[in-house]
Every structure is written in structure tokens, then in C-alpha cells.
Design goal:
heterotrimer, A alpha/beta, B mainly alpha, C mainly alpha, A: alpha/beta, Rossmann fold, 2 domains, five-stranded parallel β-sheet, four-stranded parallel β-sheet, 12 helices, B: mainly alpha, two-stranded antiparallel ribbon, 14 helices, 6 strands, 67% helix, 6% strand, globular
Amino acid sequence: MRGRNGIIVAFVALALLVGAGVQAAEPIKVGAILAVTGPASFLGGPESRTLEMLAEEVNAKGGINGHKVELFIMDSGGSPEKAVSFAKQLIEEKKVLAILGPSTSGETMQIKGIAEEGKTILLSCAAAEVIVNPVAKWVFKTPQKDSDAIQAIFNQMKSMKISKIGVLSGNTGFGKAGKGQIEKLAPENGITIVASEVYDKASTDLTAEVTKLKAANVEAIVNWSIVPAQSIVIKNARQIGFTGPIFQSHGFGNIKYVAAAGAAAEGVIFPAGRLLVADVLPDSNAQKPVLVKYKNDYEKKYKEDASTFGGHAYDAFMILAKAIEKAGSTDKEKVRDAIETMRGFVGTGGVFDFSAEDHNGLGIDAFELLTVKDGKFALYGK
Amino acid sequence: MRKQGLQIAGFATVVAAIQLVTSLTGNVYHLTQLTMSAYYSLVVLGLCILTGYAGQISIGHAGFFAIGGYLSALLTTHDLSAHGGLIVSGLAAMGILTRRPDLYGGDLLTVHPWPACIFAVLTAVAIAFAIGGPVLKLKGHYLAMATLGFGIIVYRIVLGTELVGSADGIYNVPAFPLLPGIVVSGKSSLRVMNYYVAWGFVILGMVFLLNLVRSRVGRALASIHGAEDAAEAMGIPTARYKLKIFVVSAAFAAVAGVLLTHYNGGIGPSESSVMKSVRYLAIVAIGGMANLWGTLLMSLLLNYLSLRGYFGTYDDAVFGGILILIMLFAPDGLLRRQLFEELRAAVFPAGGEKET
Amino acid sequence: MNLDLFLQYMVAGVTYGTIYGIVAVGFNMIYNATGIINFAQGEFVMLGGMTAVTLGRFLPLPAAILGAVLITMIVGALLEILFIRWLHRPSVLRMIVITIGLSILIREGALHIWGESVRALPYFTGTSVTSIRLGGVYISPQVLWVVGIGAVVVAILAGFFRYTLLGMQMRACAANRDAARLCGISAKNMVTFSFMLSAGIGALGGCIVSPITYVQYDSGVPLAIKGFTVAILGGLGNSLASAGAGMLLGILESLSISVLPAAYKDVISVAILLGILFVRPSGLFGSVEEARLKEF
């Protein structure tokens, strides 16, 4: 009898072991569509490097729930048609659990429908509100809300008693979205937009535009654009003698832009995730350990400064990882539910509280108002 | 005529064979990239006639693709419900407008894809007509620069205009019901149908172009390419023929633009960029300049690989490299006509029968 | 628009005009020697700027600029030797396509070497906020450097072509290649030299303007297009006219933002290009007869 029991036990143990072995061999497939080259490469470059770093780190520790992560990064070059093709490829052919990215809002909107149809999780690193509003079941995004960034700026302006501003924006989706939100929120904050100019994102000189604003006697300038215009605007504005405060968008989140602008960057005020000032945060801050670790790891591995853009990819990956852990499986529905019910996730962009109505999870407190002092980022007013 | 018929039949068989193989082996998803390649091939074929046969270099053809695609996208996504006026109700009564629900339960009143498509292609053709006259008077570098300039203007306009989405482009473009039961759409359930639709268009295009090449117009083009002044002296109205071909190639690009936009469900400014135009040119070059079949095969191969991300971050570099290598070492293209003769001569030296 | 605003626009226009002029001079030099329009001209400017920034990390500024110019000149020579020299009477189409291909490869190479970020040299004098005030107009000292060096380059080139043996040999080759060869001038070397000179000038331009405009791996293309517009505007082959035409384009562009949305600023230069091509391809200062006789 005992012998037979023994054999049954051994058999069961063997089956379990084999099962576990087979399980452990099955990797978790994650796709990423990023603009590593092309006009949005300042987003896709840091994002893809971050993802590679994280995948390596996770796999070195044995993977998630014992499964290694297999990451497929595809370079869309910022083109929507490539994004569409890659999305279909990843979902139907590679059968990925989730797609991280794309880097730009335009691409995200093009594949939103594909992700929904393919019932695959999409964790976008792009900022446009329309990505999660109206809410689509499978689509999430990690960057903060533009409207919150602008509200943070307006709060500051109100405390500085500024009421007449000039707005400069680039002709990208990001600039357009920012300009739209500024115009929408200005009246209820008592701010009047006296002059507004849209310029080409690749402009190399904006003296004419800032001259126009100065001539309109604005008290402050708000610039909503991406690199390199962000650095050029502040240079030109200071060169023509504009002395009022200059506010930038959260796209200013890379110390390289400060270096590029040189002395002109001093005193610029902008809302951003706390990653940029990780070192000077009080130790009690919940985000500090995550931020410091990411910053140090990234800078050590790639010998370049960490930026908030890479941070969005970090958040996307880690949220997915946590959700897989929480769900205890790689079933798409279960992981999706795990993301949607995640509360209090500490990321680089802020502390995420997802819900069925909120697939972004960040509010205005994700932002910290920063400034530039002596060529470094510093907390404003502290 | 018979040879051409055989070629077409042979090609159609290959197309069908690919589809059957992918279905049987469970790799149906490859059809997606093949379908997209088919539409890009339409552009390339039109460019082949213009640049390869007629010798008129154009580095701005992505502009026509974009005009077709963007106009169709704009008309089929712009909600006219807010506009009450006479024109709108009139159009609606004529059946040109259509009501459909959007992704989130709202209600949209937009132009039906058929009139939108016709409008888009006609506009592209009209623009080609208008600029073709002055542009084709130029030669060499000037012609290249003028077409490049055209492409850049289209790119800047779509990039800078909010109505067409600026840098984000237009999305949520609806499916295009071509005929009852045949829909151009990206839905995975309609994948096989769309594959045949796309390649059907390509085959139609090929038949048209092959006939054009063999016709009087085609022979005139060959003479224009060879020596334009001599052709003019012989009484061939070179300017008229060049314009005709320019317009035809623009139409091909615009139709491709419309169809691919509805297939993808959207379009972005990248479709009108200089790099896209250069890619089309590279494919014509490697396909053999004045070689429709060669160009088609190369287009199929290169677009398919590019759309599957095969070239990784070196995608643009690959096309640039192809251009240089071909121009340096095989200026008449890789799959040029002479290649066949050269191979034959190498294998059967002298004494071999020559086929006409 | 008051006088101050107008003058401020003019300053921006003149700065850009100088750069466009420098690129156009490069186009013209190669065109004169070979009849080729070098689509990769803008990339020389980009290479100059990027290389100088990299060298500037461990060399003092003037040495970094000199080094960048020299390195770019070598690149220009290599391009000519590897890709152009051994072509036997290539057709226009072929040359256009080759130089486009080269421009793409250089650009992608730059992307993979330097990454996607923007770079800039430090301001030659002062910082990014110093400006000299003349009346109601603010001028950054870098602008003075740009215009100054630009003028010096044009003057030196004029003198070079007129008074030095090498310059005269190059002009001979441009005017009549076969006759020059009969006189013992090595046409092939002249072509290589023209590429080198053109690359060097472009690189210098990239260095002096990078503090103001920054350089990125894809800065070359828009510059090439504007440079070509200016070259055609002044009459293809006419270097001196390029300088004037460059100023004209720069100022027109700058003033345009007072009437057009700034996002369409680049459309202006292309529209001017198309206009000139359609109406008077010989350019403002070129001879119509000569243009018609040019072989394409």
C-alpha cells in the first residue's frame, strides 16, 4: 500500500515539477511601439532605453511570477501607418499581453481602435487627453494630464497676481493640446490671453514671435512646445529684454534643455514630475526611493541624464508588472482588471489611482512646480 | 497581348497562392502588411511610368498620396451635424452625407466615403493638372527641386493646419464600402477580403499601365525620355503627353492614399514627408526604372519588410543606401530588361534564339 | 508695425540670411565645378556643428571649430572620391538620386553616432542672454559673429578665386573642363577640391550659427532646401549673388510672420522657390540666355 502511495506521490510531485518547469519556461510577451528614430525621437529614445533596462533588471531577478519578460520594441519612427502595422503584428502574430507606448498622441489614437478590437492592453506614453477621454476599456496612459499642468501654472500666476499673458505654442499635437487647454482654463482663473502665436516646431529662431508678445505688454509668457523650441524661446525672450516670468510646459523635463539654453534658463518656472528633483526631495516623500533608484540606474547605464519622458515608459512597464503580479496570471482580462483597480501605485510621474472612469490615474498633485537655479532644477519657492 | 495576359494571370495566381498558404499555415496576419504593400505599390507603379518611362523625376509624389488620403479622411470624419444650412440638408437629401455612430455612442453626420473618395481623387488630379504645366517645363535639377518643393508644401500644410489634426493626423476614419458586400477596412475578420481588394486594384492598375506603355502614348513617352527635342521635332506634343502621364501618376497616388487611409483607419503627416517620396523613388530605381513588373515585385518585397519592422531603426538608411548602390552600380535598376538578355547571353552565348 | 519691431525682424532676417547664403555658396561651388547640385550640402553644415560640439568637450573653442572644419572637409573629399569621381558622365537623374541617398546616409549615421538630442556650441562671446542694445533693437553678440564671419568668408573666397593660382584653376575647370585639362589642370582634383572647400565652408557656417539655432541630426535637410532656393534665386553658379539672395530670403521669411501664422514660415521659402522656378529659373541676377544653354 505504502509503496503505491509512494509512487502516486512521486508521480504527482513529478507532474507538478514538470508543470512548474513548463510554466517557468513560458515567457510573458510584451510589445512596445516607440518612436526611437524620427521627429519624436527625443521621446522614443529615452523610452526604449528605459524599457530595455527594466526588462533586463526584471529578468535578472527571475521574471514576474517566475516568468521571464520577452520585450519586443518596434521603432515606428513616429509614423502612424507603421504604428498601425506594428500594432496588428504584435497583437495577432506575437500575441503580446500588452503594448507599451506609442510615444506620440497621434500614433496612439490611430491604434486605439486596434487595441480595443484585439482586446489587448495598451499603456500609452503619450499625453493627449483624448486617449483616455472617452474611456476605452483596454487603453490607459501614464503621462500626467495637460489640464493639471496648466492649472498648476495658473495657480502660481494667481499668487503672483499675473493676469495678462502671452502664449506661444508649437504646431505639434502636444502644443496644440496645451494651447487648447490654456484657452479653456484661462477665463475661470481670471487670466487674459493678450497675444498668442503658433510656430513651427523646428523653428530655429523665435525672436520675431517674442518681440510681438513683448510689444503687447504681457506680464508673463507661457510656452508650450517641445525641444528645441523650448530653449530657443527663453533665449530669444531674454535677449530682447523681456524680464517677466516665463512658464514652460512639463515637456521641459530634461536637463539638456537647460544646458542648451544656458543662462537664459535661469528662473524659468514649469510644472513637472518629481523625477527631476529627486535628490532634493524630503526623505518622507513617497516617490523619492523610486525616483532616486530609476535616476541612478538610468544614468549609470546610459551615461546621460534621466528625463521625465523615460519616466513615462518606466511607469507603463512597472504598472504592467505589478498588475501581472497582482492578477497572478497572464490572462489579458485579469491583468487589465488588475490595472484598473490599482490604487496608490508609486511611479515616476506621480502616485497612480486608476479606476473604471480614470484610465490615467494622476491628478494635479502629480505635479511639482520647478524652476532652474544655477543651471540645475530646483523646487520653486522652496 | 497574350504575353501580357499570361503575366497578369501568373501574378494573380501568385497572389492567390500566398493567401492560401498563409491561411493553411495559420499565418494569416501576414496579409495585413501585404495589403498595405499593395496600396503603396499603386503609388510606385504610377511613379514608375512617370520617372522610369517618361524620364520626369519626381521627389514629391507622397504629396499626392497625402492629398487623396487627407481629403477623404477629413470629409468622412468631420461632423457636420452642427451646420444647419441649406447646403448641408441638400447634400444629405442627395445621399452624399451619411449618419453613423462614433466609437463612443455619439452621432456623426459626415460625407459618405464614395463621394469623399471621388472628391479627393479629383482634387489631386486637378492640382496635378494645375502645377503640372509649369513644373514639367523644367528639366533636370530644377524639375527635381520643384517636385520636392511641392511635396514639402503639402507636408507643411498638413502639419500646420489644425483642421486636419496638425501633427496628430486624422483618426477614426470609417471603413469604405466599395460595393455591396465589399468593404475596405482594417478589421481582422475582413482581412482576406481586403487582401484581394487591394491586389485587385493593383492588377487593374497594372493592366491599365501595361496597355498605356504599349500604346501610342507609351511609345511617345519612350521617345521623350530618350531625346525630348528630337521627339518635339518629330511632331510629338511632348508637353501634352508629359502632363497626361503626370496626372495619371498623381491619380494612382491619390487613389492609393484614399484606400490605404480607409484601411488603416487614419492618416498622419508622415505620409507626405520627403522620406516617403524618396522611398517611392528608391523602389522605382531598384525595380528597374522602366520596368513595371520589376518595380512591383521590389515594392512588394521592400514595403513588406519595412512594415514588419525588419529594418529596425535603420529603415530610412536602408532606402538611402539602396538609392546610392543602385545609382552607382546599376543605374538602370536591378531587374532591368537588359538583365534578362545579359543572363541569357551568359548562359547561351551567341547562337541562342532571341524572343521578341 | 513700428520701426523698432521692423528692425528687430530685420536682425533675425539678416542672421538667417547669412546662413542661407553660406549654404548657397557651397552649392554654387560644387555646381560650378561639376554641374551637380549636391543635396547633401545641408549635412555638411550639420556635421560641422555636431563635430565641433564633440571636439569642444576637450579642446578650446577655436581649436574645436578648426578641427570640425577640417574633419568635414575630409568627409567631403571622401564623398567625392568614393561616390562621384569614378562615374563616367553620369546623367542628372543619377546624380540627384546619389546625392539624396548620401544625404540620407549621413543623416542616419549622425543619428546613430550622436543620438537624437540637440547640441550647441557655447556662445563665442557672452552668454545666451547678453544682448547689445541699439536704440530699441536687441542684438545678440553671436549675430555679429555670424554676419562678420560670413562677410569675411565671402571676401576671402572672392579673393581666392580671383587672385590665387588654385582659384583660377578651379574657375578654368568650371568654365570649360576640356580646355582646362588641355592646359594641364587636373580636372578630377579640382572637383575633389571644390567638394572639400564646399564642405569646409558649410561646416564653418554650422559652427558659428549653432549657439543660436542648435544642431540636431536632421538639421541638414531644411537648410539644404533653403540654400538651394537662395542659390537659384541668385542665379545658379553665381556665388556673389547668393550672398545677396540669402539676405533677401532671410528677411522675407522673418517679416512674413507678421502677416502669416508662424507655422507656415517654411512654406514661404518653398513658395519662393517654386515661384522662381516657374517664372525665371535663371534667378534674379542670372542671364536668361545662359540658363537656356546650360546642359541638363
